[in-house]
Amino acid sequence: MPTLLNLHLPDQSTPIHVRSITDVSSLDGKILTFRDTTFLAYNSCTVYKGKLHISGSTVDKDAVCKLTRNNREVTAQMENEVAIYNEQLKGLQDSVVPVYYGLYKGSYERDRRVTEFLCIILEHCGTPINVEFGRLSAPLKYVAPDSSDLDFCLIFAPRLKIIDCMVDIHKAGVRHGGLWERKVLITPGGDAVRIIDFGLASVHQCRRRLKMGINHYVPLKGDFGCDELYEIGEALDIWTSRMYCTPSQLRLTHDMHILYFYDQMFVTRPPRRLN
């Protein structure tokens, strides 16, 4: 059953009433209202932020509306994104990717001209990261041996969350096709990330053969098995340089990355194979 949407746009004095052109089983027969709309961003389409009310619900949700007007290329990307959300990424919504609330097609009249549009309603998950991937945190955290802090590991929390999300996306059978900093949202409070914008995504059988660990040295690209995840690992700078020990010294091929832990020195190890 189609979902009905009352869409309030900043340049329209009255709401636009449209129907969904794809099914979202959890919204069958519901009426959605997207209101309190403000401009958020513009890339290949216009993005609005607003409040989403779903009939029968007592709490409005933060949401975004991605809207394109008479653009065949962007329309094709939106339709591709919707197919990915509705199929491969359905089980990852609200944990790895935004919740999807439907694809809608409609039109409105302005200055005696009719404008057709296509829009996607999605959960608003947070704000894009505003630094380069490799600068999300310091590469190492040094802890004094007498410290009571038990976190003796590398500070890679934001990067590892991105890696975990991208690994889950690949396990679900999707190649993102265009991940960069603005495609990663940090949720309010900074405790999670969401990956967005799957207009260029494709169905993918991931052939990754090695695990992605922060205390692993950089693997050979051919051994790793998946170009996209390998390139993301490089961009996030999660791997250290290859190194080897002699009886008297530690030598590295590039920069030294050493973690001191209770007077013991740990060096990086080769990436492990997936089971």
TrEMBL record:
Transmembrane segments: none
Residue span, Protein kinase domain: 34-275
GO terms for MF: ATP binding; protein kinase activity
Protein name per UniProt: Protein kinase domain-containing protein
Organism of provenance: Dentipellis fragilis
